[in-house]
Amino acid sequence: MITNTELEYKGNLYPNRIVDYKRDSDKLYFTTENGVILEVTVLQDSVLRFRYATEYVFEPDFSYAISETASKGYNRLEVTENKTEYLLETSVLQLLIDKKTLRTQISDLEGNIINEDELGFHWEENYEYGGNTVKMSKITQTAESFYGMGDKATHSNLKGKRVNNWCTDQYAYGKDQEPLYKAIPFYTGLHNGKSYGIFFDNTFRTYFDFAHERRNITSFWADGGEMNYYFFYGPQMSEVVRSYTNLTGTPEMPPQWALGYHQSKWSYFPESRVKEIAENFRKLKIPCDAIYLDIDYMDGFRCFTWDKTRFPDPKRMIGELNEDGFKTVVMIDPGIKVDRDYWVYQEAMEKDYFCKRGDGPYMQGKVWPGACKFPDYTNPEVRAWWAELYKEFMAEIGVHAVWNDMNEPAVMEVPTKTAPLDTRHNYDGHPCTHRKAHNIYGMQMVRATYEGVKKYVFPKRPFVITRAAFAGTQRYSSTWTGDNVATWEHLWIANVQAQRMCISGYSFVGSDIGGFAEQPNGELFARWIQLGVFHPFCRVHSSGDHGDQEPWSFDNEVTDIVRKFIELRYQLLPYLYTMFYRYTEYGTPMLQSLFYYDQEDTQTHFRTDEFIFGKQILVCPVQEPNAKGRRMYVPRGKWYNYWTEETVEGGKERWVTADIDKIPLFIKEGAIIPKYPVQQYVGELEIKELILDVYFKIGPENSMIYEDAQDGYDYKKGQFSLRKFKLVGKENELIIQQFKDGSYTTSYESFKFKLHGLPFTIATIEVDNEEVPLKQIKLNGNNSIEIDKNFTELHITGK
Ligand code: GLC
Known about the structure:
The protein has 799 residues and is of the alpha+beta class. The protein is built from 13 helices and 51 strands. The chain is globular and about 85 Å long. Alpha-D-glucopyranose (GLC) is lined by residues 266, 294-295, 331, 405, 467, 482-483, 541. Alpha-D-glucopyranose binds next to loops.
């Protein structure tokens, strides 16, 4: 498709020699004799934007992906020229632009090539639709690897693969199947120990070829729109991902309950069944924060209505569930039933809010309720109307959160599975067809939902979940990986997808634990829970027709294992909440794949299974039946086996024992891991004491804990508590310093330090330079001590 077949070659057009150069503050314009203009914008010293116009004309500069709060500003920008090239230099990179061909080459300041054009920008005119197919080809560098691209169900390293982005309802998808629910046209390349990223901000169907068609060429192209991409330089992948995430945005802190365990099924009804499920959680003492109502709560699948036979008094039911610590999350789909007696349909018809086809008729398609029309969420007026529809649900009935599904949009019984391409959209005042609006349709729907939910749950924080997404959707909503299957292969896929989403800027993600289609056996369910509790979004969901999938649906052993791991998640809540804080504040992915964690170690470049949960916990799921453990790669450094407290030296693959009640789990030496007591739901207990698990290390390590009121917005006014810990261990000494920020007063007064791996017996303990009598602070275990939460320095010496 892309470049070098003879036929294509004849069709391709190329820029020729540069005849004009102009600078306008942070923008540079290079115009060629045949009417191509390259606009280079320097956003930051390490972030450049490349945009190409043909026939001298750029499209209006409009993007749904870019965040309003994206950082801007560089330290240095100099442009010089010689006979053959223009040279742009910032404080970290240089860009060469060839005067004859407009091809570009980016290197670091030492002259190491980071990324270079092969054919560079070229295009083909599109006779059928007008405009161009826009193309870019780059030279693949020696031993280059590629990562990212959202929800692709394929090996983490994309080298040798071709993928495309077109949000698709892909029921029971398989490994390597394409495309899936999301379109996130962002990848990172890694070679010679250096990493960069490219975000192709184009909402048409996009394609990426990572040395698949030709071994040394990486290319990307789109069915329309502009060649418009951002380049991010590292050299660390963490910097690349953070820059991309800064550009496309992060969410605000979610309510803490959204990080608890969630239970869903298509569908729990009637009310008595919902209650029975909820009661069982409390009876069996399995923590749970949310229960989901899938489409069957509605009256004939009409959004914003209730089936009054199944749910006669939803307000009362939701209130009662809430008393017992359960939040209720309900589904809302985009398809509005064609029904002249249905108020949502009537309103949208009156206001002319439904999408129309090219020649004027309404776009109509079949979804759950039968024939439906689809609001044009790309119209700001429609979004405002949609947001208001949530008023009764949230403010009056008390629904806590909303789940948007089928928003690719999914259309049944048509081969394309979606709206016809001639469907028209407003696109915020840039009218276009579905070819351009398809990939952001779901994003704009959930954006409107988010606005409505946020407004009507105030002063609480909103929680929203979406299936379809484009780059930037992470600002509004959490997400899940769609209709997976209860197989061991899908457990592998869930692991890869969650990691991939995290390094694509979208951390608030999880899979349907246990599988959506078909039914897992107890062993698969237990293994999947063991992985799922380490995903940012943790929900069991399954389709109705394949049997039960609650923690107690298997045997007692499985129930006990599931309880144990959900309890572990609740203990780790302050750690998980801190991960989220780091994500919102710095764009740090909540899960870090090993190639992200240690890119200098080339052994990590093709690993898929192991990942770092947050900053200091290493997880590796068991992904096959009857396993007593598995081989896994432990990254460089020293790690404590969570279960045995043995330490291992990383940098090699090893066998790790993990019977059915364990998952391979390691803590980085020097880490301080905060833990709450087990609660049945977030906020059940007033936290009286914070446990700090300290893993001794010779040398320094930093840890952090973020806390606030767990809901509401006071944290934005300084009501948060951020504790940074600096640990330094020596042969006979351990020093922990605390640096505190924020004015939130936590409910507990003291820390209970549990010291793991201490190589000496405690002789003295000083808190802020004053010796404390041992019997005053030592707890039952030899290595547990209780200390006032406001300490500045803790100094322990050994005998
Ligand atoms: C779609 C969703 C699934 C949901 C079902 C019924 O298949 O992906 O999660 O249960 O629709 O609403």
